[in-house]
Amino acid sequence: EELFINFREIIGEHSGANLAEAVWNTLELYGLKNWIMGVVCDNATNNDTLLESLEEKCAAEGIDFSHKKAWICCLPHIVHLS
Questions:
Q1: What confidence category does residue 82 fall into, taking pLDDT thresholds of 50, 70 and 90?
Q2: For 10-63, how does the pLDDT look when each residue is reduced to its tens digit (9 = 90+)?
Q3: pTM value?
Q4: Could you tell me if 54 and 23 are in contact, meaning their C-beta atoms sit under 8 angstroms apart?
Q5: Residue 36 burial by CB count (10 A; 0-12/13-18/19+): exposed, middle or buried?
Q6: Which residues, other chains included, contact 23 with Cβ-Cβ below 8 Å and sequence gap of 6+?
Q7: CA 54 to centroid of chain Cα atoms
């Protein structure tokens, strides 16, 4: 089951660090930090940095999260790019 939980404006640059901060704040707000299993996104480099930043935040709180295992590439977006 899917559920849309948040939509927030990113203030400043759309860097991976800023995106990670917005995602992390949302996970904290809804008590979901321990439930994150994967992130669907395209292959833009800021998404790589986003996931690496999330891995660091999880590690700091003892949460098992691997950015390499969690990245679920958006197939339609990738096919469209090719």
A1: low
A2: 889 999 999 999 999 999 999 999 998 888 888 788 989 999 999 999 999 999
A3: 0.80
A4: yes
A5: middle
A6: 39, 50, 54
A7: 7
Question: 33 and 58 in contact (C-beta within 8 Å)?
Answer: yes
Q: Do the bridges between strand 71-73 and strand 39-41 make them parallel or antiparallel, or are there none, so unpaired?
A: parallel
Given a cut of 80, whether residue 79 has pLDDT beyond it is no
Specify the residue for token string 């439930």.
Answer: 35
DSSP 16-75: HHHHHHHHHHHHHHTT-GGG---EEE-S-HHHHHHHHHHHHHHHHTT----HHHHEEE-H
